[in-house]
Amino acid sequence: MVDGHQITGTFDSLAEARAYRNSKRAALALDPDAQRVLESRIKRHDVKAATLSKMLDRYQVEVSSKKKSAASEAHKIAKIKRSDLAGKSLYRITPDDILAFLKGLHRDREGPRQGEPLSDTTKRKLAALLSHLFTIARKRWRMDIGNPIKDIELPSPGKPRNRRLEDGEEARLLDELGKSRQAAIVVPMVKLAIQTAMRQGELLALEWKDLRISGDTGTATLHDTKNGEQRIVPLDATACAILAGMPRPLTGGPVFPIAQQALRVTWDLACKRAGIVELRFHDLRHEATSRLFELGLDRIEAASITGHKTLQMLKDYTHLRAEKLAHKLNQAAQGAA
What we know:
CATH architecture of the largest domain: Orthogonal Bundle
Structural class: mainly alpha
CATH topology of the largest domain: hpI Integrase, Chain A
CATH superfamily of the largest domain: Intergrase catalytic core
Number of strands: 3
Largest sheet: 3 strands, antiparallel
Strand order of the largest sheet: 1-2-3
Order of helices and strands: HHHHHHHHHEEEHHHHHH
């Protein structure tokens, strides 16, 4: 090692190796040109070694692991590492490389939707992760690089989704889910999602010890929510009946013991067989939130159930059916008369 840099060579004896080392140290101390040559060699080595794949590994350990969204981000990192871009040096990735990467993104996991292009929203999320990686590399790891994501036009974020269950879709979906191997888990899980507006991650994290049920009322305590705050969800008679119909292990544990990937495959296959297009599990939260308003709850009451932090966020998840609003207007008019 010379000034913290490794210099390699092959010699017949240890004495010759030490003499070579000492001569290099002396040359670096007396000759500025020798120092520049050494720095150039080190630079070339760093450029070659700093592949996107290796930097993503470092990012995952030092940055992602400390985030609440670590598990979700791990999937994004794995997807980027499966691309051709992962083998390029961070120093040599250009805006055109990023654009080509985003354009070529598609679903590569096994399932009914394998091979389909990813949504613009997903592409924006992957681009945001890469942008943060370049920022961390420059500011924290002191790498002399720019941020190519800043020099491209990202896909449009799109409008908030307003997908709800249409006529007959709920029955067809539950019927197809009931034919799956995981029917005993996914059918009550979907029913409870529609009834309570709980997120997929909240349902997967729900344990039997978090439930308090007495007769036809109860509560579900959610410890690990998206906004990081504990939330207590009220359970009505329908929700209590759904949970009462499930087998409850004596040892407790998760209410819905299924992996997220297995749930996604089961969901996609059921939607395909039911002839249901562009319906995501998260759309059940839209459906449930809208139904709360259609039942007559005000925004404060609905937000206490769904866990939305702002009324604008709650509005984005609320899509009332015009027909039901018309009926409500008729009822109000009759009452006034």
